[in-house]
From TrEMBL, chain A:
It holds the Pfam family ABC_tran. SMART domains: AAA. InterPro entries: AAA+_ATPase (IPR003593), ABC_AA/LPS_Transport (IPR051120), ABC_transporter-like_ATP-bd (IPR003439), BCA_ABC_TP_C (IPR032823), P-loop_NTPase (IPR027417). This is ABC transporter. Keywords: ATP-binding, Nucleotide-binding, Transport. The lineage of its organism: Bacteria, Bacillati, Bacillota, Bacilli, Bacillales. GO terms for cellular component: plasma membrane. PROSITE patterns: ABC_TRANSPORTER_2. It comes from the Bacteria. It comes from Cytobacillus solani. The keyword Transmembrane does not apply. Residues 4-252 form the ABC transporter domain.
Automatic annotation (TrEMBL), chain B:
InterPro entries: ABC_transp_permease, LivM-like. The lineage of its organism: Bacteria, Bacillati, Bacillota, Bacilli, Bacillales. The chain crosses the membrane at residues 28-45, 51-70, 77-95, 101-123, 130-151, 179-198, 228-250, 318-339. PANTHER family: ABC TRANSPORTER PERMEASE PROTEIN, HIGH-AFFINITY BRANCHED-CHAIN AMINO ACID TRANSPORT SYSTEM PERMEASE. This is ABC transporter permease. One of its GO terms (cellular component) is plasma membrane. It comes from Cytobacillus solani.
Length: 256, 353
């Protein structure tokens, strides 16, 4: 049984069918990639998993529990974390506070103990600060920890965004185009971080990415969407030889 | 010997507790202590008139910190502050004058009741954002004032109610100085509570809701809960400020809590700095004292040009409006930002590069 099971998920916006009976499963501890042309429904799929969209029909199961009707914040508490495609950091907070916010569901301080601070809240802050510092060391962003995120360069913001999701200590990490708009060196760095997250923290990763080199190298399994339909599922080798996928997305190299 | 003309450089913290302190450097801590001490001893030297003005500034600051929690930090615009002040003032008036409870019970209760009312009017905030929410809170303003002025048996209607000054044992807070200290203690508690709040979990969640609500939700923040919570915390402090104001002026009546008051409070946090605790205090002082200075200025000029006194009186409002517009254009982040710029300038002085 997979950690995440998608069963016949359909998502309609009025007459537009964004997802059409998509089913697949993600196994625990793998790197799973979603690929497809623009507008194929990849981000909509991720929104269904993290709870921003409610599927019109079908179900999403996490660790065997149906979460289709859970609110997004409840899914975060279960251990589903996400980094967005367009950076969705909190621009006025420092890197450190963004990451501390990532640990929101792991902390307990309420409004009164927070306002009184000395004692319980302070202890908890220090404890969770240690975890956050581990993430900061891991992603090598020590030098910017006190900088407000809004002032950082794009590549760094992307890394902080991954860091915020990581701070939650997720069981499953959704990465929506973590390498979009990066140069090849930054891409290599990001790929290395993804592999490290996968190997050191044993986190299951769902990745949306357009760089086929990265996708084919990293993924254990790939699902291909086109116009809301699942047109391929399998290992990178199988996908590369799937005629439907080649026609819809990968294309053929014209020689001569 | 330490060279007095150079700034110390490098902040060395050896544990997270030090790194997360409100004031991290001992020089800053000393400066804050001196400021607090000065504010604590100043009523002993100043005249009653000035101490009275300071008390009004302080009460406005408590309310403004409350409003800033909601509007500045959580990003939910509210133009119902005037009415919430009224709820606080009237609750305390009813509890002390009609039920004979002591001020020390009535004031916190006024805070709690205002928090509940604020929470109720915060319920639409899940669906409404920005201007739409502003209009919904405007409804709060109108409804609450309507209830207050029509519920004659409870509130005394448009005639209002008379309150007494609080007392401990046989000591009554009748003098300006004693009431100043009462206000001062509550202001300090409010300030420290709010500063703490925004370096711990709930405060961070408030800011996250303001900056990106969708991301906040995906990171595990229950939007509805935290928006209503912001309304509740904010209204609590506004209610306490209302009760303090009521017992200070010793009268509550509907026209003291009109929409003009709401807008004045919005002006306070705009001029002071949205999302800044100290900004609320600077703004409260500025907006409370501005009319006083303008009046003094007009009186001086009227002495010189007696014929122009009518014109000058009208100019007061114009100058007031002008100041707010100039702030919005030249320093939208308010007095708090101006003060920060000054500090930053001297941090590197004389070589600012």
């Amino acid at each position: 049984m997979g950690i995440l099971e998608i069963n016949d998920v359909t998502l309609r916006f009025g007459g537009v069918v964004a997802l059409d009976k998509v089913s697949y499963e993600v196994k625990k501890g793998e790197i799973f990639s979603l690929i497809g042309p623009n507008g194929a429904g990849k981000t909509s799929m991720l929104n269904c998993i993290s709870g921003l969209y409610k599927p019109s029909s079908g179900s999403v199961c996490f660790n065997g529990e149906e979460i289709t009707h859970f609110k997004p914040h409840k899914r975060a508490a279960l251990g589903i974390a996400r980094a967005f495609q367009n950076i969705e950091l909190f621009p006025h907070l420092s890197v450190l506070d963004n990451l501390m916010l990532g640990r929101h569901v792991r902390m307990k301080t309420g409004i009164l103990s927070g306002g009184l601070y000395w004692g319980k809240a302070q202890k908890e802050e220090v404890l969770h600060r240690q975890k956050v510092e581990e993430v900061i060391d891991f992603l090598e962003i020590e030098h910017i920890r006190d900088t407000p995120v809004g002032r950082l360069a794009y590549g760094l913001q992307k890394r902080v965004e991954v860091g915020r999701a990581l701070a939650l200590e997720p069981e499953i990490l959704l990465l929506d185009e973590p390498m979009a708009g990066m140069n090849s060196e930054e891409k290599e760095d990001m790929a290395r971080y993804i592999i490290d997250i996968h190997e050191e923290m044993e986190t299951t990763i769902i990745l949306i990415e357009h760089d086929m080199g990265v996708v084919m190298d990293l993924s254990d399994h790939i699902a291909v969407l086109d116009f809301g339909k699942l047109i391929g599922y399998g290992t990178p080798y199988e996908i590369q030889n799937n005629q439907k996928v080649i026609d819809a997305y990968l294309g053929v190299e014209n020689v001569g | 010997m330490k060279n007095p003309f150079v700034m110390g450089c490098g902040e060395f913290h050896v544990n997270y507790k030090q790194d997360m302190a409100i004031w991290k450097i001992s020089r800053v801590r000393v400066r804050v202590m001196i400021m607090v001490a000065l504010l604590a001893i100043f009523p002993l030297i100043a005249s009653d008139y000035i101490v009275g003005l300071a008390t009004l500034c302080g009460i406005a600051a408590i309310g403004a910190i409350g409003l800033n929690i909601l509007t500045g930090f959580t990003g939910q615009i509210s133009i119902g502050v005037g009415a919430f002040l009224g709820v606080g003032g009237y609750t305390s008036a009813i509890l002390t004058a009609k039920l004979g409870l002591s001020f020390w019970i009535a004031m916190p209760t006024a805070g709690i009741i205002t928090a509940v009312v604020g929470g109720l009017f915060g319920l639409p905030s899940l669906r409404l954002k920005g201007l739409y929410l502003a209009i919904a809170t405007l409804a709060a303003q109108v409804i609450i004032l309507f209830v207050i002025s029509r519920w004659d048996t409870l509130t005394g209607g448009t005639a209002g109610m008379v309150l007494s000054r609080p007392e401990i044992g046989s000591f009554v807070f009748n003098s300006e100085t004693s009431y100043y200290y009462l206000m001062f203690v509550i202001l300090v508690i409010t300030t420290i509570f709010t500063l703490n709040l925004f370096r711990s979990r709930v405060g961070r969640a408030f800011i996250a809701v303001r900056d990106r609500d969708i991301a906040a939700e995906v990171m595990g923040i229950d939007l509805f809960k935290y928006k209503v919570l912001a309304f509740i915390v904010s209204s609590f402090f506004v209610g306490v400020a209302g009760a303090l104001l009521g017992h200070y002026t010793m009268v509550v009546s509907p026209e003291l809590y009109s929409i003009t008051v709401s807008i004045e409070y919005l002006a306070i946090i705009l001029v002071g700095g949205l999302g800044s605790v100290f900004g609320s205090i600077y703004g409260a002082v500025f907006i409370t004292l501005l009319p006083v200075f303008l009046r003094t200025g007009v009186e001086l000029l009227s002495g010189v040009f007696p014929d122009l006194s009518n014109v000058l009186n009208g100019m007061k409002e114009v100058v007031f409006g002008l100041v707010i517009i100039l702030f919005l254009i030249y320093e939208p982040e308010g007095l708090a930002k101006i003060w920060k710029n000054i500090k930053d300038y001297f941090k590197l002085w004389p070589f600012s590069y």
